[in-house]
Every structure is written in structure tokens, then in C-alpha cells.
Amino acid sequence: MRSLHLEAEIGQIAETVLLPGDPLRAKFVAENFLTDVVCYNKVRGMYGFTGNYKGQKVSIQGTGMGMGSAGIYIHELINTYRCQNLIRVGTCGSIQPELDLGQVILAMSASGDSDANSLLFKGMHYAATADFDLLYKAYELAKELKIKTHTGSVFSTNTFYDLEPNRWEVWQKHGVLGVDMESQILFTIAKRFGAKALALLTVSDNIITGTASSQQERENTFNDMMKIALGLA
Ligand SMILES: O=P(O)(O)O[C@H]1O[C@H](CO)[C@@H](O)[C@H]1O
Ligand SMILES: O=c1cc[nH]c(=O)[nH]1
Fold this sequence. Notes:
- The protein has helices spanning 23-33, 67-79, 115-120, 132-144, 169-173, 183-192, 215-232, and strands at 16-19, 35-41, 48-53, 56-61, 85-94, 104-112, 128-129, 149-156, 178-180, 196-206.
- By secondary structure, the chain is of the alpha/beta class.
- The longest helix is centred in the C-terminal third of the chain and has 18 residues, at 215-232.
- It binds 1-O-phosphono-alpha-D-ribofuranose and uracil.
- The site of uracil has 10 residues, from strand 5, strand 9 and strand 10.
- Keywords: Glycosyltransferase, Transferase.
- InterPro entries: DeoD-type, Nucleoside_phosphorylase_d, Nucleoside_phosphorylase_sf.
- It catalyses: uridine + phosphate = alpha-D-ribose 1-phosphate + uracil.
- One of its GO terms (molecular function) is uridine phosphorylase activity.
């Protein structure tokens, strides 16, 4: 059996699946970090691969940008392919001055502006949270690997570009570390269907100051995030 947006056969996708927004990041990771790689999905160019990392079977699946797109893949991975551990490996914009470009955030919770969430919870506000077990393991692993991380809350938005000034001020004041576009829906769907979820986010830019990482910096820091995520598999 296949799902609507993924053409993998049952059993082709590992229990642990890493989720970058960018399908080409999935390809890069598969080609550079995994062995015995099989590409199981090309539908809509949303690449998915399964391979081995230090003897463990692991998959990496692009989700596209935004909660609408990511929600589709997350739903199908859990409900059709029975994936158990879903770990987002993404980028985010920082809204805190002390967060340097390239640093890794372990997202403990995700607020957001998704209509999907407000409709589901009838206008009330669900606290979408990561799985504690995965979060704790990622924290310990990062310490062991001597990778500096920041654990805290993030915000997932459906609109990348800000049309109004000072949009992030209130979130900054409440300690939110960074802004991405998928973590909230990941935590919500995973919790609903009994899977474990975590989001690791590399800071690619600072939304307040406007600074952004160079391509070289992105590559180096991206490796830090991948070492943690793959270590969890
Ligand atoms: O780097 P990825 O995983 O795509 O994540 C971030 O980058 C995209 C926006 O440029 C959004 O998907 C956002 O969540
Ligand atoms: O969603 C995102 C991702 C990276 N940088 C941002 O500013 N926003």
C-alpha cells in the first residue's frame, strides 16, 4: 500500500525519520551521511531516502515549507508507514539577541499561527510540545558531542515575510527563541497519533537584526545539527 503523496512500499521507511523542509537537504544528507541508500519517494519532487547510519536504519523525508505541506507528510508517515520517531532538522530565524547564527535550538514547545491548530482546538490554545524522551536524549548527546545548544520554545508561522513591523516583540518578551514554519504541526499531529516528535533547528538568520549566515557557515553548523539528529536514530 502507498499513501497519497508518498510512493514507498510499506517497510521501506524506517521507524525514525528525519524531516527537513528542503527535499534537496534530504538528498544531501542521504548522499553524505548514510550508506546503502534507497530513494523511496520522488512524488512532487519531495525526495525521501532510507539508508544506514552506524548500523541503524534511518529515513530522511523532505516536507516542503509551511504547516499545510509538512502536515501532509507527517500524517502519512505516521498513519500509513507507522513511523515512530519524527525529528525535524530545519532552519529558523532567531528572535533573541544572545542566539548566534549557526547555533542549534532543541525545540521544547512550539506556539504558532496555524489555522489548523486553532480550528482543531476551537479557538483555544494547545501547547504543542516535543517528546520528552527524544528531547532529553538530544540534550545529552549534544553535551557528549560538545555541541552548544539552546533548549526552549519556538514559534511556527505560515507567513515567512512580515508585513507589519514589530511582529515578534511580544514573542521575544516571552522567551521564544526562534521562528520556523513546521514544528507546531509536527508536535500536534505526532501527539494525536501516538508518535514521538522533536525539532532541531539551526539558526540561519536573526530576524530582529537582519544578519544571516554565509553558505560556508550554514554547512558547518548544519553538520552539528545532523550529528545530533542521526545520533538519535
Ligand atoms: O530549512 P527548513 O527546514 O525548510 O525550515 C525553514 O526554512 C523555510 C523558510 O525558508 C521554512 O520551511 C522554515 O521552517
Ligand atoms: O522560518 C524561517 C526560517 C528561517 N529563517 C526565518 O527567518 N524564518
